[in-house]
Specification:
By secondary structure, the chain is of the alpha/beta class. The protein has helices spanning about 1-15, 60-70, 100-115, 135-150, 180-185, 205-215, 240-245, 265-270, 285-295, and strands at about 40-50, 75-80, 120, 155, 165-170, 175-180, 220-225, 305, 310-315, 320-325, 345, 350-360, 365-370, 375-385. Helix 2 runs parallel beside helix 3 and helix 6 (about 205-215) runs parallel beside helix 9. The protein is globular, with a radius of gyration of 20 Å.
Length: about 375
């Protein structure tokens, strides 16, 4: 208890010093990069995460409007939804009172694919696994069945609650490697061990298969997609703002503006110490990161793209060249973000990312910020190679 109060005092000192060295990156300067020649684009990849809770009338979610328009006008568009496709607890049983809202959330995302003509993939997030509860395996399979039944060619990858990887070669120059990262962190029933019907039944199997996927890509640019990122300047990376210390109950309900100074600091401190498996500082998360790093050794993927933190971040990676965090897929659903030493761009804003892959192997990243009217503007652009 004494240690907790000492840490709380340090936390309050950090608040006064603007975050103990991690400056808020909401005002990052716009990077200028020449546009990609449309005639030379082989694949246009859109990355959007945590899009499963639109709280607006159908077809009026601003981020979906902007994504739909951008994908419709892009050459050879592919959209990857980066997990947490249904808030807050995945796809419930057909008799549950929350079933209609869950169906609407997925239908809205599927509608973006249908209206734009883009090819679409979904990867699972922790909320899709029944919010990390023991019924998660059933919930993720119900979500898979709903997406498949909707038609249009969209797919949840990996399927069946399996960890993956699933390899999808897109166009002539891109290899997608899809992972279910929640499989690593899920407590309770999941497909693992000798009774599993998945192609990979253990963590070792997963890593061997990921290693094979990235090492056999040839000249294709490898893009790994999974919900949990290996690095982040958001809350899941252990970076909290003063509101988290003063108003901790807002993490339960956004309208609970009840000040709890000092006492409230216990929550972000515990999170930073790794009390939740969903945070990068936890042992389970660290084990997953180390394992994936070993799989990428000797053949670094160009991109690891995830969501999880409700931010837009571009980070220079270590085992991958770039880490992209695109987790603010519905308007207003964004959180504070801090700049890491390796951060190239970070914003607390709603939007998505676009990566244009040219036939000559080059790739251009654009981070698009969306306003309330559904208009998207590129805030950051970068040629990745």
């Amino acid at each position: 208890m004494v240690r907790t109060w000492r840490l709380a005092a340090v936390a309050w000192l950090c608040i006064g010093l603007e975050g103990c060295g991690h400056a808020k990156a909401g005002g990052a300067a716009r990077a200028q990069a020449p546009p990609a020649p449309p005639a030379e684009i082989d694949v246009t990849l859109f990355l959007i995460g945590d899009a499963g809770g639109p709280a607006v009338p159908p077809d009026s979610e601003p981020v979906f409007q902007a994504l739909r328009a951008a994908a419709a006008s892009a050459p050879h568009a592919v959209i990857v939804f980066l997990g947490d496709n249904v808030y807050p607890s995945g796809m419930p049983d057909s008799t549950a009172p929350t079933r209609a809202a869950a169906e609407r959330a997925l239908t809205e995302q599927l509608g973006v694919l249908q209206a734009s003509g883009a090819r679409g993939f979904f990867v699972p997030g922790n909320h899709d696994w029944d919010g990390m509860r023991p019924g998660g395996w059933d919930a993720i399979r119900r979500e898979e069945r709903f997406i498949t039944a909707a038609g249009g060619g969209a797919a949840l990858l990996p399927a069946g609650g399996c960890p993956g990887p699933v390899v999808v070669d897109v166009g002539h120059v891109v290899r997608l490697v899809a992972l279910d990262t929640q499989w690593w962190l899920q407590e309770g029933p999941k497909p693992a061990g000798r009774t599993s019907s998945c192609p990979t039944r253990s963590e070792g199997d997963v890593i061997d298969s990921v290693r094979a996927a990235v090492h056999t890509a040839g000249t294709r640019a490898v893009v790994v997609v999974g919900h949990h990122p290996p690095a982040s300047g958001g809350a899941h990376g252990g970076h909290f703002g003063w509101r988290d210390h003063v108003f901790p109950l807002r993490n339960l309900k956004s309208w609970l503006w009840i000040p709890l100074p000092l006492i409230g600091s216990a929550y972000p401190i515990a999170r930073a110490e790794g009390i939740s498996s969903q945070d990068i500082s936890s042992r389970a998360y660290a084990r997953m990161r180390v394992a994936l790093d070993s799989a990428f050794a000797g053949a670094r993927p160009l991109i690891y793209a995830g969501g999880h933190d409700h931010t837009l971040q571009v980070i220079a990676g270590t085992s991958t060249r770039y880490v992209l965090v695109s987790g603010s897929g519905t308007f207003g659903h964004s959180d504070r973000v801090a700049a890491l030493d390796s951060t190239r761009f970070a914003r607390d804003a709603s939007g998505f990312m676009r990566v244009e892959f040219l036939r000559d192997g080059r790739a251009r990243l654009g981070v698009l910020i969306v306003d309330r009217a559904g208009n998207a503007a590129e805030e950051f652009g970068l040629w990745l190679n």
